[in-house]
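Lab notebook page, bench 4
Experiment: in silico fold of construct C2
Operator: M.H.
Input chain length: 607 residues
Purpose: comparison with the prior construct
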Amino acid sequence: MPANEKLKEKISHLPHKPGIYKFFDEHGIIYVGKAVDIRKRVSSYFNRSTQHNKKTLKLVSQIKDIEFTIVDTEADAFLLENNLIKQYQPKYNILLKDGKTYPYICIVNERFPRVITTRNKKNDGSRYFGPYPSGTAMYVVLDLIRTLYPLRTCTYNLSPENIAAGKFKVCLEYHIGNCKGPCEALVDETEYNANIAQIKNILSGNLSVAKAYFKEHMAAAAADYQFELAHKYKQKLDMLEDFQAKSTVVSNTLTNIDVFTITSNEQCAFINYLKVMNGSIILTQSLELEKKLDEEDADILASVVVQLRQEFESTSREVITNIELQLPLDSITVTYPQIGDKKKLLSLSLKNALYLRKEREGRQEKNKELSEQRELRVLETLKKDLRLTELPRQIECFDNSNFQGANPVASMVCFKNGKPSKKDYRHFHIKTVVGPDDFASMYEIVTRRYRRLLDEHQPLPQLIVIDGGKGQLGMAVKALRDLGIYGQVAVVGIAKRLEEIFYPGDSLPLYIDKKSESLKLIQRLRNEAHRFAITFHRSKRDAGTLKTALTDIKGIGPSTADALLQKYRSVKKLRDLTMDELTAEIGKAKAAILYTYLHAAEEGKQV
């Protein structure tokens, strides 16, 4: 049974239930999707009446197998899809492939805890805050904490026994006021832990507890006429106020909210995420994601919401977005505010997403302009070096390939504006030449190429490059003369040995500076034509060898050989098939003959 028939058979037995489906090519998973109805969704990919874009058609053409998993609810499918995408990284799914580990601030689980930075979150009883989108954002908070509270930075084991035994001495941090010397019992553990409790509040986004503490102690010190101490508390209170002012305070009435906005063009989606806690934005992240299958904004954003909430450990129960969004998660409320503080918050996020889009598109436009300027410069140089009358915006290069006269083929590659135009590449089977005659082959392929362009009223190139010396160039010129277009198109030959450029009718070659951009462009053309010809020649030669090997087997005819050849390409791949797989392809009788032959050959019993 052919592969597409196998898929149709499998699709017909898919369940009408919610779940996820996985598409495989010969190497592994290439796409993971979710569906309320698995059979209905998967069938839509193969429905000829459905108008798919080119990317989706390419995906479908590569599908060799389908697997599915049934789940209880749409929400379960949503979460399972997200986890599988992260696990397998399929090439046709939009992915957050950042791969980096974000930093945390950690309050270490120890006596007289240290406050440190780390990128490795461990299950060791320590308290972790974050992750932070960048080291800069994290150090702003950490610097505030270390300025407000004198904490130890040493890694000593400050057990009561070690301190009582006098094992440690205070260091420079103590003498400059950054530590209160717990290593020599110079600070009470209760007082130290009270500071740690306030630090936890600050790191959780709740500055009110620390501010109330400093206000209370400032007033008490002033009432006791300890004005210097009161001033120190006042300085620390000002630091907290300043830090909060620099943070974007949305509203004191808002609690914990996640804000996601999206804008997109044909190629990419641009997303901004704001994490709000206790009325302040504590985290912002902007992303640019390349579209894989022309996905809708809602599908992209739904996936990103789940991934970023997991990445930054959000526990917010409300998500604000700028588009209609279906998040099938019972614990999450999605809102689209029209007025008030939430609308202002949404506008701020969208402004960031739009800025990212404008910046990226501006950069792409600038790069495009620079690229076009460079291409024009190279073409102008080539026009000057080759003394052409026109700017060679379209160049075509020809090459022959054969092995000891067998399987003669040729190739033509086309460059437009200095870049490969692969849709215009052409392969040629040599039809009129017998034996290894490169000159006659060149005449044939040049004639066939430009007769077709003339018949179809297609524009001619401004330059033709022949991979070869005077002989092959002469045959190309003869072909152009016979077609009546010699003189309308410039034609040159390039000899491999010394990179000599030959003109028709000129016995002396032209030597272009080896560092010249124009010579490098001609070399790229020549090398690409050679590669394209060699690849075609090898595939034809291998196909001929395999077909001959198969048709030499009694009971295997040309049509069977052609079908196997088209699908498997090599004896090794055929040998890897099981008897059941061969039977499904060519029937039981032929499969038995071929299976015996292939495995007898493997064991050295058959030539």
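Observations: The chain has 19 helices and 18 strands. Residues 340-385 form the longest helix (46 residues).
Next step: discuss at group meeting.
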